[in-house]
Write a structure and sequence with these properties.
Elements (H helix, E strand, L loop, with lengths): L1 E2 L1 H4 L10 H8 L7 E2 L17 H5 L8 E5 L8 H18 L4 E5 L10 H17 L2 E3 L21 H19 L2
Helix pairs in contact: 2-6, 4-5
């Protein structure tokens, strides 16, 4: 999984109650966690702005059956910047694990009315995913996080939000991995 604090968890979650651990506990899969809070396709964390999804995707295990990329942090970027960076991330994942399916989720937003910048980032991700032949899920369009009970800080899913993520992602992951 290539992602950010949505994947790794935050202070909003109980220990071990993030979707990676939940999924690995229920399915016979190995999860390679390549997520760092603050990262995105076009942005890296403050400590290392060049550490983006593309640099993480290049580290995917060559034997991976699927690469799941989950985003939220590209809000300050233009559609073209997100598109170019997502294209690079998908290419890096395909180079690292040529036989892996790509599953793209996001960007995510923690309420029913995302700002225009989220929709701009979504357009760049959508275009790059389509061109890469990746399966894509749009949590904003599907209103995954419209319920304010799923987050406590307006940014990160809490335990209930992680459960929703797992339930929404499970069918896609099971389909890709033939579980």
């Amino acid at each position: 999984m290539v992602g950010n604090a949505f994947t790794t968890g935050s202070r909003q979650n109980s220990i071990g109650h993030v979707r990676v651990e939940l999924l690995a506990a229920e399915e016979p899969i190995d999860v390679q966690e390549l997520a760092v809070g603050g990262t995105g396709y076009a942005v890296g964390p403050a400590a290392d702005p060049d550490d983006t999804f593309a640099t993480r995707a290049a580290s995917v295990d060559p034997a991976a059956d699927a690469v799941l990329l989950l985003s939220r942090n590209d809000i300050p970027s233009t559609e073209e910047d997100v598109y170019a960076a997502a294209t690079a991330a998908f290419a890096a994942a395909r180079t690292a694990a040529p036989d892996a399916a790509l599953v793209v989720v996001g960007p995510s937003w923690m309420n029913a009315t995302p700002p225009p910048e989220v929709l701009t980032a979504a357009a760049g991700v959508r275009r790059a995913a389509t061109e890469a032949g990746a399966g894509r899920v749009d949590p904003v369009q599907a209103a995954w996080f419209a319920d304010p009970a799923l987050f406590d800080d307006d940014v990160h899913p809490n335990d209930a939000g992680q459960e929703v993520l797992l339930e929404r992602l499970r069918p896609r992951i099971e389909d890709v991995l033939d579980l």
